[in-house]
Structure to design on (833 residues):
């Protein structure tokens, strides 16, 4: 996929979307025939429209331990709505893959239960769960052709050969690989293999599809393109996607909701915008995007605002913080893009003297590393045509931000576990 | 021609010429790298073997020791007793060979054709009548009546040519009849075809046993955690540190009538009295399978190690049960290892010698045993060479079959 072929690509996407739509129709007719009886099918449709109430997957107090002592997944409670695109995001080793594998049936749960469509999955082997799965390195069968790879799940479901051939052809169209059915996986590029893996997980029209870092092996450009494509496929098919990644940008781009994992627990479960704008912990604030942290103590947490004294004695005003009382240790977080610089002191709160330590030119914006209130890693992003005169290392300036742009969060042991 | 067109021509010609040059230089380099090893193999391996195999069609003894007789008897029709002039040439040659001391070689060679010929010829050479006397055949017969039997004279004609197909015919269970047609000798001289079939059968059974026993072990090795798989691998390689002879005799000790296995069987009440477990086919299968098992497991293990476990998970997630996932996804990918292991075991079995000799009964000896016997006991090097070639042909056929299957498997994988 070269950037130079963009017009052609747009045309292709148009065709692809039509094919996706056709698959979606097929899928619905398939579902209807399964849930026989018109009323239940109609109820199903209504349920999907109000997807919040209808949940397809429920983790109920699920814990997992491999060695009997350390809990890799710790009391996981999670409801995934039908048709939702839910992403499990977290640093490496936080238990995302383990959670996904328990859902897929490759790992047993140590305690708790997982329900799919209301049924307990205890003792149900992976091949009876009817879940689509895309693995990180695609897991295409190297000894089979692309068409045979795609036909494999259909063959396992004893579909007649003619139907399989037709369905495989449609799936190849869907991922723009028509005519490549006779090739082996090794003869395809990484991006093409990725498409085959997605098509293979969707071809038998499962209502739940799991993906474990499916784009991890692709280069940046291709990854971004595939993110959008996955999102489009999700929107078209209405299938529930549970997606695992450690890449916060990717999670923000594609998800309906994100579950932020840390040490086997969900730290926060919210939409991308909520997570970014209203993180509930320093961990989440630092994990999603960049953030500046200033440690201090709550002086007063009132209806209108929260007053914090920093270690340097400076006062910061933040919006009222939930769960903090006067005297509690706290960390004030503020995003680099919310900060203004000025040569002189203005009226208003949250203004501090700053020394420029480093200046990095990044084309569309400039990053400054400052020393503010004893923090040597205070980052500020300035848009290229911001009115501020050029600042260089050694210069002095003032930073300020609106109280609404920062948050006072409980200081916790994990406060510095930034990635 | 302007310099411009000259340049164009050069551009047109150069790439191919340069490429050819590069290929040549590459092959010269390659040759230099493998040269010493190639030379070593040629001198110590290829040449001696070729020389040995040449003996399977060579029959020089009579032609060397009784040269005139050999030449004259080849022209004789072989019916009845030979004419007087042939007998005279024979007597002259025998006298000459006795002088040079070569008569023993001729006697041994003729003894292969007719048992007892050796004694006859040596005795006759000692009391040889004057070769110039008349009625020479009559005088010979008076010394020993066997000279009246056409069988002995025909044997001289048979042994006369310098080159012969009789060893190969013998290996195929045939021999040239008196009238030149091929006939089957009596059954107890027709052992080699049976022997070849037995050798192939034993090798096949051992290969199947190794496959059946080795596949699960290799699977365990490839999928166990590193801690256990290292230990298992060590156990697997342990036998390589002891000699083949020791391992074979160990089975002799274990399986004998008073051995551990019999004791256990009787103690467990499975049998009332010790069973014959050794010096028969059962003992041979047990010992050979044990010795050759690692050669099946190791190639399988290395191939299985290269199959990502996630492929089986993928198969399960796509709705395939364990049986389908194994037969459609796992097994096909292990075929190259299975083929390599089976080929290795089969070819090594074909040449097995010590193990059958020690733990097998008389009816379990394989072709190598008879090659050794011909080469060292009866000194029938021609027969030994012919049998060796037959064995090599089997190996070659096995290789071709494997290459066929292997290329198919590779085509599947590629
Ligand atoms: N099969 C296993 N046996 C033992 N420990 C495991 C196994 N799988 C994962 N773990 C451990 O569980 C923790 C979580 O792993 P994982 O779920 O893969 O994390 P993530 O996908 O978020 O990177 C890690 O510390 C890892 O070492
Ligand atoms: Mg993972």
């Amino acid at each position: 996929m070269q950037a130079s072929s963009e017009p052609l690509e747009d045309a292709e996407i148009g065709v692809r979307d039509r094919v996706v739509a056709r698959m979606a129709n097929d899928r619905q007719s398939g579902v209807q025939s399964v849930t026989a009886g018109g009323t239940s099918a109609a109820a199903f449709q209504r349920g999907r429209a109000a997807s919040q109430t209808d949940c397809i997957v429920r983790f109920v107090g699920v814990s997992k331990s491999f060695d009997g002592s350390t809990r890799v997944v710790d009391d996981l409670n999670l409801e995934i709505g039908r048709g939702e695109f839910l992403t499990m995001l977290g640093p490496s080793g936080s238990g995302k893959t383990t959670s996904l594998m328990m859902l897929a049936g490759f790992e047993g749960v140590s305690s708790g239960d997982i329900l799919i469509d209301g049924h307990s999955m205890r003792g149900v082997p992976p091949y009876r769960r009817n879940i689509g799965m895309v693995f990180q390195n695609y897991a295409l069968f190297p000894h089979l052709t692309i068409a045979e790879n795609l036909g494999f799940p259909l063959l396992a479901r004893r579909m007649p050969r003619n139907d399989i051939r037709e369905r495989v052809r449609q799936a190849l169209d869907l991922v723009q690989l028509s005519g490549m059915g006779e090739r082996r996986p090794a003869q395809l590029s990484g991006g093409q293999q990725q498409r085959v893996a997605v098509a293979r997980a969707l071809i038998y029209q499962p209502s739940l599809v799991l993906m474990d870092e499916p784009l991890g092996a692709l280069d940046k450009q291709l990854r971004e393109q595939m993110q959008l494509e996955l999102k489009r496929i999700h929107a078209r098919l209405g299938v529930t996607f549970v997606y695992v990644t450690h890449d916060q940008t990717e999670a923000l781009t594609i998800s309906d909701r994100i579950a932020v994992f840390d040490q086997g627990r969900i730290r926060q479960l919210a939409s991308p915008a909520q997570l970014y704008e209203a993180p509930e912990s320093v961990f989440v604030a630092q994990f999603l995007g960049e953030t500046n942290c200033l440690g201090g103590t709550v002086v007063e947490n009132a209806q209108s605002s929260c007053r914090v004294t920093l270690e340097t004695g400076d006062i910061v005003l933040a919006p009222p913080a939930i769960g903090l009382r006067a005297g509690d240790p706290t960390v004030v977080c503020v995003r680099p893009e919310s900060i203004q610089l000025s040569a002189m002191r203005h009226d208003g709160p949250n203004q501090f003297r700053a020394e420029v330590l480093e200046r990095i030119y990044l084309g569309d914006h400039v990053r400054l590393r400052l020393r503010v209130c004893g923090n040597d890693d205070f980052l500020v992003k300035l848009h290229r045509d911001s009115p501020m005169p050029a600042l260089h290392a050694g210069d002095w300036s003032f930073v300020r931000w609106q109280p609404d742009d920062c948050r006072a969060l409980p200081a916790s042991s994990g406060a510095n576990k930034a990635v | 021609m302007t310099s411009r067109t000259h340049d164009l021509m050069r551009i047109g010609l150069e790439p191919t010429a340069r490429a050819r040059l590069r290929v040549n230089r590459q092959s010269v380099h390659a040759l230099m790298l493998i040269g010493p090893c190639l030379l070593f193999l040629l001198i110590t391996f290829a040449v001696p073997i070729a020389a040995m195999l040449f003996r399977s069609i060579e029959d020089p003894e009579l032609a060397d020791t009784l040269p005139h007789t050999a030449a004259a008897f080849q022209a004789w029709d072989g019916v009845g007793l030979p004419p007087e002039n042939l007998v005279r040439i024979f007597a002259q040659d025998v006298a000459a060979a006795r002088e040079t001391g070569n008569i023993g070689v001729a006697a041994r060679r003729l003894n292969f054709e007719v048992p007892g010929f050796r004694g006859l010829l040596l005795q006759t050479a000692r009391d040889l009548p004057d070769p110039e006397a008349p009625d020479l055949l009559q005088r010979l017969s008076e010394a020993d009546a066997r000279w009246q039997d056409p069988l002995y004279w025909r044997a001289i004609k048979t042994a006369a040519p310098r080159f012969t197909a009789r060893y190969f015919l013998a290996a195929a269970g045939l021999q040239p009849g008196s009238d030149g047609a091929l006939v089957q000798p009596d059954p107890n001289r027709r052992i080699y075809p049976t022997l070849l079939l037995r050798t192939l059968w034993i090798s096949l059974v051992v290969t199947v046993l190794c496959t059946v026993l080795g596949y699960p072990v290799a699977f365990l090795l490839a999928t166990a955690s590193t801690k256990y798989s290292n230990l298992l691998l060590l156990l697997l390689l342990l036998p390589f540190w002891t000699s083949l002879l020791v391992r074979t005799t160990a089975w002799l000790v274990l399986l004998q009538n008073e051995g551990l296995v019999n004791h256990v069987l009787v103690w467990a009440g499975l049998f009332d009295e010790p069973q014959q477990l050794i010096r028969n086919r059962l003992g041979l299968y047990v010992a050979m399978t044990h010795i050759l098992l690692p050669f099946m497991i190791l190639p399988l293990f290395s191939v299985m190690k290269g199959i990502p476990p996630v492929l089986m998970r993928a198969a399960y997630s796509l709705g395939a049960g364990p049986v389908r996932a194994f037969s459609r996804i796992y097994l096909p990918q292990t075929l190259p290892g299975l083929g390599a292991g089976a080929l290795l075991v089969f070819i090594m079995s074909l040449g097995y010698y010590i193990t059958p000799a020690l733990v097998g009964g008389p009816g379990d000896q394989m072709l190598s045993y008879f090659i050794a016997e011909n080469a060292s006991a009866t000194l029938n090097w021609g027969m030994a060479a012919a049998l060796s070639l037959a064995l090599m042909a089997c190996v070659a056929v096995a290789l071709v079959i494997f290459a066929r299957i292997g290329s198919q498997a590779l085509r599947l994988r590629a």
Remarks:
- The domain at 192-413 of chain B is CATH 1.10.3720.10 (MetI-like fold).
- Residues 3-54 of chain B form the longest helix (52 residues).
